[in-house]
Amino acid sequence: MTQIRPIRAGGTAAVWLFVGFCLFAFAFMILSSFKDSTQILNSPWSLPSTLDFANWARAWDSAGFGTAAINTVVLVVSASVVVVGISAPAAYALSRRRTRVANGLTMLFVLGLGIPLQVIVLPLYQVLAEIGLIDSLFGLFLVYVATQLPFTVFLLTGFFRSLPSELEEAAALDGLTAGGTFFRIMLPLAKGGLVTALLLTAISLWNETLLGLMFIQDTEKYTLSLALIGFIQQQQYNGADYGALFAGVSITILPMLVLYAWLGRRITEGLTEGVGK
Amino acid sequence: MATPLETRQRRIFGLFVALPLLVYLALFIGPTVYSIYAGFTNWDGIDPPRWRGTRNYTRLVSDPQFITSFGNTLLILFGVGVAVFVLSFSFMLILRDMRGKGFVRGVIFMPHIVSPIVLAIFWGFLLRHDGLLNAAIVKMGGQPVAWIGPKSAFLMIMVALVWTSTGFYVAILMAGVDRIPKYFYEDAELAGASAWQRLRHVTLPLSWDVVGVAAVLWTISSIKIFEFIYAFGAAGGYMPPDYEWNTAVFVYGVTVGGANPLNRFGYASASAVLMLFLVTALVALLRRAMRREAVQF
After folding, report:
1. Which residues in chain A are contacts of B290 at CB distance < 8 A?
2. DSSP of B222-260, one letter per residue?
3. How far apart are CA B255 and CA B270, in angstroms?
4. Which domains does chain B possess?
5. How far apart are alpha carbons B186 and B180 in whole angstroms?
6. Separation in Å, CA of A182 to nearest CA in chain B
7. Sorting pLDDT into bands at 50, 70 and 90, what band is B2?
8. Which of A144, A276, B126, B130 is the most buried (most CB within 10 A)?
9. What residue of B is the nearest CA neighbor of A121?
């Protein structure tokens, strides 16, 4: 025991250092959104002197983060609801039938977890171009739904498997149809799993960048990630407005941080236990 | 003889599975198969691809830009991977019986739920010439350091990836280790096992499975890393400098990325397919290496 103690003390200090760095990073980004460019550059370590929202207003209006925020909310909410909405019945069906077809299809969905997005973006570009959905938020919505399916189906299949089937047997004996059993009995039981799936899909889409970068060009259709990249790129020409940049950063991260503070346990457990099984 | 329940469930199976399966086949599996084909063609993303056999692949292995990108992808996969693993395993051991472990786990997980673009912006501000780190060094009387140069930039990206990835793997390892019943440790302690022996004979063997899962997850997700590198290095509409590319950036850079898109879709497909094979082979290897008799507990 004795030889362990100094190692442990050093380790504990390292852990707190790491925690401190994470907290500092987020505090720096949010606090800098209340400072002007000169203050950010000349005294990056100082606290803001006032709680002035001028940077936020500039970021929201002239830098396009307002439009981007609205685009992102609409896109993320609709795509998450649709993904979970179509994955839940499929996951239920896949979890309940143990035939070779059902197992094969489950495997096919899991396979998608291992395919890097780079492999599919180029043919997708061609497909979207052919049906006129390049530079369209609806096109991006379709791609978001498709790319989120493997994870959502995987997560929910595991979740439905963990639910007992006695209730369904009773419902079948009572003459309830399979569809009725699913909607009236299983869905309410699965509420926790569905909320987790919805949360995880929404978080990953909120932060998505590669697909947006590939398929969206018009700044009016930018999502928050694209607006951030666009803003950094433009600074080379327009001079740097770091205050507005960090206001844009804050607009991007605060909704996620609030969600995390509120439902953090659910998010971590969904991500780690869903995958760990 | 099928029970009434089975009959009913068979009836709805097709209806429930059809829509997501269709979307998935059309916009995920289909494109994957098409990429494998496109890797053997000359394709600009507009005109129909023309067959050119294995020429894309032979060209890739002698393309210095691809070799750099591939090397960087391997550096992330193995270099960052080992660092993240060592760090998160040690953190997990320390956190097991530390006060405030819920808080610590919650805070270090935060980088995982925000956009990598944001993290790249912060990282740039930390390391730029007039950034946070140099400001602190100068204040303490030192000379500013050039953190982001051709030699050091990629190393800095790797350090950042260790920072942003560790929290997620700590959470995964902890979720696995938390499932080990307390009485194993109590028994070991009664039998006079030292802390080291408890780690060696209880924690390590019983967390083997979750370590395997974490290794597979890292393999898959490290190949996909794109946003952080792109946002960290790209400026003025141009791609990041050559020495910062990995294979994911390569696919974007030789097709639609940058100020003058190259539109080499067939060539990029070949490189993406190579990475798909690398992932598949590594995951198969890992699964074989980690396979052993499951310990029931």
Report:
1. none
2. HHH--HHHHHHH-BTTBPPPGGG--HHHHHHHTTT-SSS
3. 12
4. 19-290 (1.10.3720.10)
5. 12
6. 10
7. low
8. A144
9. B31
pLDDT reported for residue B70: 98
CA distance B285 to B282: 5
Spatial distance between the Cα atoms of A25 and B229, rounded to a whole number of angstroms:
18
Listed by start position, the domains of chain A span 59-276
Average pLDDT over residues B190-219: 86
Do B145 and B133 touch, CB atoms closer than 8 A?
yes
Sequence-separated (6 or more) residues with CB below 8 Å from residue A189? A163, A167
**Which residues from A are below 8 Å from B226, CB to CB?**
117-118, 209-210
CATH assignment, A59-276: 1.10.3720.10
Tokens representing A10? 């050093």
Question: Of A117, A229, A257, which has the smallest distance from its Cβ to B117's Cβ?
Answer: A229
The three-state secondary structure class of B52 is coil
- Angstrom distance (rounded) from CA A72 to CA A78: 10
Predicted-complex ipTM score:
0.92
**DSSP letter at A165?**
S
Determine whether the interchain pair B279/A92 forms a contact, defined as Cβ–Cβ distance below 8 Å: no
